[in-house]
Amino acid sequence: MQTIETKSLKVGQYVNTAHVDSAIRNYKQERWVHNSERIGKEDSLSAWWSVEELEEFIEHAKTHGADGVKFYFGAYDKEHAPLAEYADRQTLVMVATKQKENADGTTKNKDIYINTEKGTNIVAYNCGRLCPPFCGQGDDLDNDEIGITIVDKGDKGFVVI
Question: Left (φ > 0), alpha (ψ -120 to 50) or beta: where does 119 sit?
Answer without folding.
Answer: left
